[in-house]
Amino acid sequence: MGRPSKFSDEFKRDAVELVRSTGRPINQVARELGLSRETLRNWVRAAKRQTEVGDVSGADDVADKDAELARLRKRVAELETEKEILRKAAAYFALVRE
């Protein structure tokens, strides 16, 4: 038995859907979400296997997935903005110390 995952099933589904719907590389999406690329790759593979078997829970609820995807995209944009602010602040304080 492995250790329990620190990520919820919903987060995993949303991350996989983000990879599928955007067509962006797994590496890029993983970096944006703060995951290991191998972790996300494993989730995508597992989801693909489930889809092939036909065991996808909640697949009929496209509207909820679209809303969650929009929420995740907004959160990624917010985090990118915060990262940029912190990068600029670090550069400013590095100049001040000189």
Summarize the structure.
This protein has 98 residues and is mostly helical.
* Alpha-beta classification: mainly alpha
Please indicate the percent range of residues in DSSP E strands (runs of 2 or more): under 5%
Task: Give the termini distance in whole angstroms.
Answer: 53 Å
Mean residue pLDDT: 86
The tally of helices reads: 4
Shape: elongated
What is the gyration radius calculated from CA atoms?
17 Å
Query: How much helical structure, as a percent, in the residues?
Result: over 70%
**Strand segment count:** 0
Structure keywords:
mainly alpha
Could you give the topology of this structure?
Blueprint: H1 9-22, H2 26-33, H3 37-53, H4 62-97
Helix pairs in contact: 1-3, 2-3
What does this structure look like?
This protein is mainly alpha-helical. It has four helices and no strands. The model has no long low-confidence stretch (mean pLDDT 86).
